[in-house]
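Long-time lurker. I teach an intro course on protein structure, and each term I like to show students one example going from raw sequence to a predicted 3D structure in token notation. This year I'd like something fresh instead of my usual example. Would anyone be willing to generate the tokens for the chain below so I can use it in lecture? Attribution to the forum is fine with me.
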Amino acid sequence: MELFFATISLFTVTIAASFIYYKRIQQAHAEYENSKDVVRVITAGFSRQLRKVVGSIMAAERDAADAQLTAAEATRTSVEAVEAVKNHSEKVSELSVKMDETDKNITSLREEIQSLARRRPVIAVQPSVEGAIPLRQDAVLDQLTPTELGVLMLIEETGEASGPAIREKVNKTREHTARLLKKLFDSGFIDRNTSGMPYRYSVRKEIKALIQQQKENTQISL
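-- Reply from a regular --
Happy to contribute to a lecture. Here you go:
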């Protein structure tokens, strides 16, 4: 009898223990399933974050590539700009050289024109023919006014005189003296030396011969 109760008690304890163990297994399984869900959620969240990070990295790489292309284009543009400036500088230098050459040509042309002006043809005087020449010589000098003739005589006596010196001798204004000298020069009575300032004037040798002849004729008449 005691053995029966002991067996029943042992069986009861075994069943109770099995039930408790089963419950714990169910609880553990439930916790495992919950853990799987949590892990799945965490994994899904991590995957999403990882995809975002990868997307950001790829976007950054694209931006870096675009920036590199932009930098390369800017570098190429800068090189082209430098070349353009260099070519422009060379053209400016060439233009400067051409302008210098043009200035030299203009200066040379101006000097040539002045030289040609100084070699202007003078009033023609016929060779001496039996006393008719004095009348022609007088006719040449008779074209001048007394003031102009006086200026011509003054220049002939000094050999060469400047405008201010002539003005002081004839006691005329600067403008009047300039007009007198211009008329004598344009008419071929005097030469003008423009190599220095002020200009210097001298009687042309043909006119000087006429003046000397007139002086001799005047002395003979006296």
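Some talking points for your students: Residues 120-135 have pLDDT under 50 and may be disordered. The domain at 133-221 is CATH 1.10.10.10 (Arc Repressor Mutant, subunit A).
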